[in-house]
Amino acid sequence: MTGPVLQALLSHWRTHRLQVVTLLVGIALATGLWSAVQAINAEARASYARASQQLGLGQFEELRARSGFIALSRYVDLRRAGWQVAAVLDGRLYVGNRAVRVLGVDMLAYPALPALTETAPDQAPQDPAQMLTAPGRLVVAPALARLLQDRDDLPPRIPSDAIPADVILTDIGVAEVLLDRQGQISRLIVLPQQPIGRPPLDKIAPELVRHSPDRQVDTARLADSFHLNLSAFGLLAFAVGLFIVHGTVGLAFAQRRGMIRTLRAMGVPMRRLVWITLAELTAFALAGGLIGLVLGYLIAGALLPDVAVTLRGLYGAPVEGHLTLRPLWALTGIGMALAGTLGASGHALWRLSRMPLLSGPGLRAWGGNARARSMAAAAGVILILGGIASFAGTKGLIAGFGLLAAILTGAALLLPLVLSWVLSALSRRARHPVTQWVWADMQAQLPGLSLALMALLLALAANIGVGTMVSSFRLTFTGWLDQRLTSELYVTPTSQDQGAQMMEWLGPRADAVLPIRSTELPHRTGPLFLYGIVDDATYRNKWPLIASGPDVWDRVHAGRAVLINEQLARRADLWPGDSLTLSGDHDLPIAGVYSDYGNPTGQAIVSMQRLDQIAPGTPTRRIGVRIDPAQAANLSRDLQDRFELPPGAVVHLSTMKAQSLAIFDQTFVVTSALNVLTLGVAGFAILTSLLTLWTQRLPQVAPLWGLGLTRSHIAGLEVLRSVLLATLTAALALPLGLVLAWLLLNVINVRAFGWSIPMTVFPADWLRLLVLTVLAAGAAAAIPAWRLRRLPPADLLRVFASER
Amino acid sequence: MNVKALVIFLVLPLTALAQGYAGLGGDATGFERPRPGYQFQFPRDHGAHPQFRIEWWYLTANLTGADGRDYGVQWTLFRSALKPSDQAGWQSPQIWMGHAALTTPDRHFFAERLSRGGTGQAGVTAQPFEAWIDEWHMRGADTDALTLAASAENFAYRLNLTATGPLVFHGDRGYSVKSADGQASYYYSQPAYSVQGVLSLPQGDVAVTGQGWLDREWSSQPLAADQSGWDWFSLSLEDGDKLMAFRLRGARGDFTSATWIEPDGQSTALNDGAVSFTPLQTASVATRDIPVRWRVEIPDRALDIEVQALMPDAWMGTRFEYWEGPVTVTGSHAGRGYLEMTGY
């Protein structure tokens, strides 16, 4: 008996091919966007894990010095006392304008050699004598090896696929020469096997601090907020896609009510019908899920290179730009498709199973009613209040995202009720009978369209919110760059000695020479970079302070106070008036807090003299040169000739700004791509809703035609109705989007990155979005309207003749 | 290329493993070579010779515990130069490797340390004498009275050594030939230490006494290219005589050499072919067949003995793997000693 029943049920899809397409597209879009984000996240996480594992980062206990580096003699003291430790010198080298991490390890003791050993199979085994003795060898990823091709000043390179991008792995003896940090050790790794009878650390090197692996701030954790952002977007796209599924399945079930009633009258048990329908939905979910996976893989592949650049630029997190297919990812994707489809169809299925045997094929039966609308609205209000309450309780990043989700979902649930109020109010004011009919008809159509409109509301709000955030951020960032990047030229010396010679040489030739010296210090909030500055008007006039006490600069230059960046201020809750403890015994009052975008770590600024007291021997990493912009190009050329600098060692202000902005824009490429995709899905949802509703429109428009309205007139009203509903939704989306933007800027950003950004509104963008929405709604209504215009009058007449 | 291969190469001055065990048959370009007739000068020659490619300070001891059980102790410091020079800090091409082992009748413990010269983490000074790597050390005012210490995750020892006889020079007054092609090393020993101290084992400390033997050897190319390993014996016989004997196994045949040491330290070199070595029984150790019972014969000295490993599984699973452990002697003479076997 199952066979004929199945045939009967499936016949519906044969006559409603568009519904099949809609359903599959809905499932595929939801699964595709979700899976794309998951693939990107999985790839990035795999990259971090690979890098950590290969380079042995964050797996072992470490010893660090409060002063920034450990002297070689301290290492020997520890070794000779029985402590099994491995020395690591970690630094940055500029290759052109690209910062590359140099990881210098003691190759004889380093516990994580796999990265080293897996050189390409066609390479001859490495001669350890060459690795360990001058000039040494640099093990780098093949891409970096190509980039370094012409650098004859560097030791020979060994390409290895096992090395993360932007990392140079080499022996510590090679690294100390490369970084010009002879005899310095950044940290000591405590090896897993230690001899019995080892004396305690404070007996040998009391100035060293033990860092357990879980206390080390690693890139994976820093980039977590970024991945959470992406995941939120993936989830939003998934939800919007499911609106399509929900709408289509609901309609298909409603249209099959008559058939189901007939089947049951013929003796088919309800249970069997439900099972067959479930199987049918599962088949749809699998097919749609598979298409979605392919789609997701393609989208992820297209977006991943940008994500990789972003993560590298923002966090120095090594992410490879290519995608691997993971079985778990595919399984999860199919699982999400199944769960999503069944979840979105659950309501329809439940109603089907509860349908009285002889219930008529009511037209509005599937669409919900006033009571359902009020209940949804009540749920929405509860959700919003719950989100606010839970955020007030915890205030974390996850709770922030929870609040966002609650407000968005709650607002979506409120939408039908609000729209219904607005339409009631409008219809009360209408005098003309046709106008009255239009309002009343819109009211009547609302249940069928409300899901599509909810999707539109979410997509529009997300668009406005994220757009406002990105634009505000960009505006602030550009202004900040102007304040922060003030020198006309930035020079990277190749060694300490050369740096000193350069300063001397530049003295009489430039308006001001500003050495940039920095060292890494441990702090309870994670690593902290301490910078030293000279007294110059450039800083006094332009540095972007967001909070400051009295006589900021006088106190800093006198060595009596410190400036900290916003990230550190927020993380450690330190503000002007508090004091910052550096290297154990240096306790300095905080004079001010400055904004510092695009930098995940804490930072502090002191006077040069102070820096020398806190961390003697801190190297000059860069030199800022103030000069008449017209002279900059000449000076740059002279400097390059005089010191035989490699290309990229001298960077112009304009280049620096352009590069910074390029990195910034790259950061949001993914965000805007997902934004556009979400809006596209919402537009599609409206189209499908209107197309499916169309089949039920005849009984309602036929009387109008019978009363004398032309088909063109009715078709025009159809388009108008769609546009009006979309416009109303857009109007409601605007405040929601602004709330979203405010939350993103003042809650999510602060928690994820440690900085807040003043919100700026961009009405021109809203207008553009509104036009886009109206066009989309008009286009979505155009097909049914066009069909109506071309409808043979006989079809309309038939409405009066036959009972439906 | 796997991890192990790289680590092996790390300490190998040259890449090709074909050149004898642990690269000891490798090219010696740029390094000094041993010459016959060399005049040793002490204490200077107790120290390091960085212009030679390889060098070791090798101490073994046969001990008896207060519990009546036999124990063996090994303490070795190897120096391997990647270039015939030295520099300060990490730039030093001198690589140091320490091996420590403790053998009981039923267990064999071992540990390994690596270091670069130049940093002070490992090295040897002649006066006062100290050979060290990390916290492991062998030191004293001179080599006649030494303290010896090593520790690892699961064992440690601390011993005092007192010399009871003079230094003994092998081969031709310390010039020890290793092949028919003339490969050679400088080689002398202190074969007569009386030892006392404490061993730390997982089940607790054991006080011990016994005899120790220090070997000192340095060269730049001690093996011929075809020689793949050796069997080396240092035996203390109950009548007071001592014997150092080795066999170098080569594709072109074995090369043997020995030194007979009288109780007063008088020594006689026994040339190639004077000693014969016959493996009597092998044991499966670390997936290899290792001879753990030997017949050693020196007809001229009326010596016909069986040498048996105290603990057959005395495998040193270090970067260069080899067998090294205490042995007992029976037959025409009784006694005990140490056996080292490489290249299996």
Would you write up a description of this structure?
The complex is a heterodimer of chains A (804) and B (344). Chain A is an alpha+beta fold. Among the domains of chain A are: 1-56 and 221-366, no CATH class; 58-215, no CATH class; 484-658, no CATH class. Chain A is 62% helix and 13% strand. In chain A, strands 11, 12, 13, 14, 15, 16, 17, 18, 19 and 20 form a ten-stranded mixed beta sheet that branches. A six-stranded mixed beta sheet of chain A has the order 7-4-3-9-1-10, with helices on one face. Residues 118-122 and 361-367 of chain A have low confidence and may be disordered. Chain B has one domain: AttH-like fold (Beta Barrel). Chain B has one helix and 23 strands. Chain B has one helix at residues 3-11; strands spanning 54-65, 70-81, 94-103, 108-116, 122-125, 129-133, 136-140, 145-151, 156-163, 168-169, 175-177, 184-201, 204-219, 227-237, 242-250, 255-261, 267-270, 276-285, 288-298, 303-309, 315-316, 322-331, 335-341. In chain B, the strands form two sheets. In chain B, strands 1, 2, 3, 4, 5, 6, 7, 8, 9, 10, 11, 12 and 13 form a 13-stranded antiparallel beta sheet that branches. Chain B is globular, with a radius of gyration of 19 Å. At the A-B interface, α3, α4, α5 and α7 of A face α1 and β4 of B.
Summed up:
With 804 residues, chain A is α+β, with helices and mostly antiparallel strands. Among the domains of chain A are: 1-56 and 221-366, no CATH class; 58-215, no CATH class; 484-658, no CATH class.
Describe the SSE topology.
The complex is a heterodimer of chains A (804) and B (344).
Chain A: H1 2-15, H2 17-55, E1 62-65, E2 70-71, H3 72-80, E3 85-95, E4 98-105, H4 114-117, H5 128-132, E5 138-140, H6 142-147, E6 157-159, E7 167-171, H7 172-178, E8 184-185, E9 187-190, H8 201-204, E10 208-211, H9 219-222, H10 224-255, H11 257-265, H12 270-315, H13 327-354, H14 370-394, H15 397-429, H16 433-484, E11 489-491, H17 496-506, E12 512-523, E13 526-533, H18 537-542, E14 545-548, H19 552-557, E15 562-565, H20 566-572, E16 579-582, E17 586-594, E18 602-607, H21 608-614, E19 620-626, H22 629-643, E20 650-652, H23 653-667, H24 669-694, H25 698-706, H26 711-752, H27 763-789, H28 793-801
Parallel strand pairs in A: 4-7, 5-6, 13-18, 15-17
Antiparallel strand pairs in A: 1-9, 1-10, 2-8, 3-4, 3-9, 11-19, 11-20, 12-13, 12-19, 14-17, 15-18, 16-17
Helix pairs in contact in A: 1-12, 2-10, 2-12, 2-13, 2-24, 10-13, 10-15, 10-16, 10-24, 12-13, 12-23, 14-15, 15-16, 15-26, 16-23, 16-24, 16-26, 24-27, 25-28, 26-27
Chain B: H1 3-11, E1 54-65, E2 70-81, E3 94-103, E4 108-116, E5 122-125, E6 129-133, E7 136-140, E8 145-151, E9 156-163, E10 168-169, E11 175-177, E12 184-201, E13 204-219, E14 227-237, E15 242-250, E16 255-261, E17 267-270, E18 276-285, E19 288-298, E20 303-309, E21 315-316, E22 322-331, E23 335-341
Antiparallel strand pairs in B: 1-2, 1-13, 2-3, 3-4, 5-6, 6-7, 7-8, 8-9, 9-12, 10-12, 11-12, 12-13, 14-15, 14-23, 15-16, 16-17, 18-19, 19-20, 20-22, 21-22, 22-23
